[in-house]
Every structure is written in structure tokens, then in C-alpha cells.
Amino acid sequence: MIEASLRARGPYSLRLSIRLGSDATRIAANGRLRAVYEIDGRLEIAEVGQGADGTLLVRAPSQEVVERVRFALGIDDDHSDFLARFSRDPFLGLTVRRFKGLRPLRCATVTQALLRALCGQLITARRAREIERRIVRAATPSLDGLHAAPTPATFARFSPAELRALGLGGPRASALVRLCRTLDLERLRGESTEAAAARLVRESRIGPWSVGVVCLEGLGRYERGLVGDLGLVKLLARLRGRRVEGWETAELLEPYGEWAGLASVYMLAGLKQGTLGVPERLAA
């Protein structure tokens, strides 16, 4: 068993970043994370906590699992530039200052992030997570109650009808099976964000929001915002006092440029906590 002490590049709060992060592959509770990873066909569990000095303490069976944890937490992807640029932003500034240690928790595989995106289309987050859990638990092996993250091979052996029976809508089930049979999703981590996004949107069921989810939680990229997210739709509707369409949320994210994906995460956090301002450009 390895016990590793890790330091994040830039501000990082494990408690903030893993909040609501539990799924079929991991449990986040009391500021600690317990997650399973598949390494060369075997399952290994890592446990992570954070000391008062900010050091992340990882306990895992192998160094490979420690590296998987590094990626999942995003601790090597310093977002200090985002904090410096937008800490005084009229809309997002208070949220940025209050939650500066927040980074999105990543899935163990790109395939799981794609499943999450397809499950989450046009339904509540709670219902989407229920469907995702059910599918992962039915599809992958487990260790001590935690299931391995799916890979393309996992869903390539399923039929769309089998996934529909588990709760994933027909066209989305077909899209997942088709992509897993025709594309090595895990290799997208080696592609540029633009190239990966371009490949994904060739599939008719993959739109801007789904690409944003895969980029943030599967590839670990901050450039692509969650355009069309239901939370952002509600936020923009509240700001404008009228019903808005999903595509209009791109205007919320446009000022944040290459940080649009991370800005999405902070906006959703600010929406829940009531820490967002009302910029004049969005009030009309």
C-alpha cells in the first residue's frame, strides 16, 4: 500500500471539489473521497483526504492509482489565471473569491463522462445520476461496493434495447452504443479539445452541452462551456425576466473565453449559493 502526499498547483479545496461527487465509482463524504480504478484488469481502491496545510493525502495500492487520482482531482491544472482575471468580475467575482479552491471532479474514463452527458440531456440532475448509477452497476465489476468506470468495450457489447431497459432514452442509447463501437473514446484525451469536440458532434445526439460535459469531466479541459445547461437556462431566464432558449446561455459564457468550462462550474455554484451579480449586459 502506497501513502502519497500531493500538492495542488494553485488553490485547491478537496471538500469543495468533491461536493455532490458520489456516483457508482466513488463515494464523497465528510471531505474525503473513496474511488475505485481498473488497472490492468484488476480493481484498486484509493482513499483521499486533505490536511489543514492543503496537502492531499492519498492511500492506494499502486502508483498508477495515485496518478489516476491526480487526474480525477485536476490538481495539476492550475486555475490561478482564471482566479486573477475574474475575481473582480461584476457577475462572477464574488463566487470566484468565495469558492477559489473549486475545480470540477473528473470521471475515471471518457466513456463515463459521455454516459453522464447522454443521461443528463433535458432531465433533472438527480434523475440523470440515478440512470447513470443503474447502468454502471449493471455493466461493470465491483469491489467493496464501488463499480469500475465503463470503457468503450463495456457498452460495445450492449444493445440499445438493453440500455433503454435501464432507463437511457432510445436515441441516446443508440448513440452511446454506436460511439463505443466505432470510436476509441479514451484516446480523445490525447487529442486537442477542438479535434475531440469536432469528432463528438458528428453524432446527432451530441450537442454543445454534452461536449462541455465530456470536455470538463472526461478530458479535463476548461475551454468548453456548458451551453444549454438547465441551471444556466434558469439563471438567464431569471436575469432577463422571460423564457430563454438553451443556445442563449452562450452569452453568459462568452466573456470567459478559454475558461468558459470552468466559468460554467462557478456559475452553477454561485446560482445555488446566491453569490452572483447581475451584469447590465444580461439584464435586458
Which key phrases capture this entry?
284 residues, alpha+beta, TATA-Binding Protein, Endonuclease III, domain 1, five-stranded antiparallel beta sheet, two-stranded antiparallel ribbon
Structure description:
Helices cover 45% and strands 12% of the residues. The protein has a 5-stranded antiparallel β-sheet. It has a two-stranded antiparallel ribbon with strand order 6-7. It contains 14 helices and 7 strands. The longest helix is centred in the middle third of the chain and has 15 residues, at 125-139. The protein is α+β, with helices and mostly antiparallel strands. The protein has helices spanning 14-18, 63-73, 80-86, 93-98, 110-119, 125-139, 152-156, 160-165, 170-182, 193-200, 208-219, 230-240, 250-253, 260-273; strands at 2-6, 26-29, 32-39, 42-50, 56-60, 142-143, 146-147. Among the domains are: 2-78, DNA-3-methyladenine glycosylase AlkA, N-terminal domain (TATA-Binding Protein), CATH 3.30.310; 110-219, Endonuclease III, domain 1, CATH 1.10.340. α5 (110-119) packs across α6 (125-139) and α5 (110-119) packs antiparallel against α11 (208-219). The model has no long low-confidence stretch (mean pLDDT 95).
Number of helix segments? Answer: 14
| Residues in helix, % | 40-55%
Report the CATH topology name of the domain at 110-219.
Answer: Endonuclease III, domain 1
What is the level 1 CATH name of the domain at 110-219? Mainly Alpha
CATH architecture of the domain at 110-219: Orthogonal Bundle
Instruction: Encode the helix/strand succession as letters.
Output: EHEEEEHHHHHEEHHHHHHHH
CATH superfamily of the domain at 110-219: Hypothetical protein, domain 2
- Percentage of residues in DSSP E strands: 5-15%
- Unreliable residue runs: none
Characterize the overall form.
Answer: globular
What does the average pLDDT come to? 95
End-to-end separation: 58 Å
Q: For the report, how would you describe the main beta sheet? A: 5 strands, antiparallel
